[in-house]
């Protein structure tokens, strides 16, 4: 008997292998490429600019063994399915695998798995396609463009500031947005203004609050002290206002569409403070498969998408689910269809659960806490999208006196509709039934001084939204763009806000003025559109790169000529002399920021911290006053006598441990500062305070500007 030839399925993830293997027969063999198998070389440009920008892909170090394993598995197979992710990256991996396996072989086919479920995978295998060369070319163009920009511009930063820095076609535009916002904030001049809030009472002794709305017919705040004095004299306790407008409306609120990549990242950031990178890792887990009692299955559809469309079968299944669980009243009368915005690729559906019957609460025990949060977020958003609108009853009253108007509003839900699932129902204000012409009396009034504020710094969610609105980057790149800025030290996160560092601002000042057109928002958006046109076959990838390359080289050569002048202009000499050779000390950049170094480097290698922050402690070994230094894990105390004295210790928090009153040390982590006790096992990302809990006597923590007890508020588990 002849041995039956097997069918081979190649995916990029071992986890996906495990899931698919669970619901396919023995005739299939699954193998993983573990991501890309080829890339441009790290040590050189890897692009032949004189030969139509041909990329010189090589096998990634360490992947030769995996490629040989794949070849061995595919040898004598009846058919090979290249089932990599259904996007540009996946198509590029499929093409590289096909080249290694001999792409001319007719039994190599492309399978597109938009969700990892038995039905979908079997249908995809029954209807395979061929590799989409337009997608491959779009990926090739992006990779070549990014390599050209990074390879030629990053060394300029190395020569001027320090090695290890980088510039990127999209990364530098994101940095530009952050730095320009930072410059706006620093240049902003705050001006004072005043608001007023009054409490009114009716003749029936019903109270309601109103805020100052109009002055002399214009909707505005109090802008001058003279006007403030006038209004304070005009409006006092007992002043009678007349109801000039009273209306009741019944507005409806419709649900948002299912998630796409950017909106999922934004919502996860707002609700759970997850970074874009963490959100995508969790979504990847849910897409590739979770172990359930009925077997391993992918819980969500492909998570890198910019389209909000959903297929008809899934919508029909969802509408049956809504009717069965919530009743007919909660189902929107007609199928709600959401329209994609312009320039959407539309290759994938919106992010949705693969099986609406898999309720998050029913499978909670099979997910870790963070997976559950993301799955429930996706599930509820999808379910809400076909539910009926939320209905509200809204009252609005305007009361007037001497050309001064106060407004009061009340909004209460009368039918939750989709908000039964989304949980974002809003109830605010309280306004009694009033009639036009009725008199109400001021029983209290408060004027508050405020100051105009600049536009706030971006959060990661805001930045991703800004990138998406301006067509910068694509769903698969948002998380990578923001993470690169953090990794390079160009930005830092303080209370969820992204703040440009001094290094980031210096990189901006060097790169942006000299490549203003290349790293410009509209230019980058135009490039993204051209990459999309390559994907649809409307443009040749080499032409797009040539149109970019020619003006780029002119700017590049000019900047290279100026590099030494730029460096000299940035060198700051201080009055202090080198203690070893008496040359002037200069400010330089290093791994942990700025420091002082001898201008005679490399002959003299003397260096010291640029700003020495002294502590109140003495070195226990030599008696010198310990200073605060910066290291990989944050600030620490060190002896200034280094290298003769190498004593160091962790920096301690100014409040004691809330559990045992021991010393708290501060450790820098990716999630932020960790406050850890040296004596007990207490640790928290919330800083301890010196205040004590009135109930249990333990120390309080500061959580989002509120004082909380680690025991009573269940911040940590009681031992």
Description:
The protein is α+β, with helices and mostly antiparallel strands. The chain folds into 4 domains: 7-131, Rossmann fold, CATH 3.40.50.140; 141-188 and 456-567, Topoisomerase I, domain 2 (Orthogonal Bundle), CATH 1.10.460; 192-254 and 390-451, Topoisomerase I, domain 3 (Distorted Sandwich), CATH 2.70.20.10; 261-384, Topoisomerase I, domain 4 (Orthogonal Bundle). The chain contains 17 helices and 34 strands. The strands form 10 sheets. It has a 6-stranded antiparallel beta barrel. It has a 4-stranded parallel sheet with strand order 2-1-7-8, with helices on both faces. Strands 21-22-23-24 form a 4-stranded antiparallel sheet, with no helix packed on it. β1, α1 (14-21) and β2 (28-32) form a beta-alpha-beta unit. α5 (133-160) runs antiparallel to α16 (521-535), α6 crosses α15 and α8 (261-272) runs antiparallel to α13 (460-469). The protein is globular. The mean pLDDT is 89.
- The CATH superfamily of the largest domain is identified as Topoisomerase I, domain 2
Would you identify the CATH architecture of the largest domain?
Orthogonal Bundle
CATH class of the largest domain: Mainly Alpha
Shape: globular
CATH topology of the largest domain: Topoisomerase I, domain 2
How would you state the average pLDDT, rounded?
A: 89
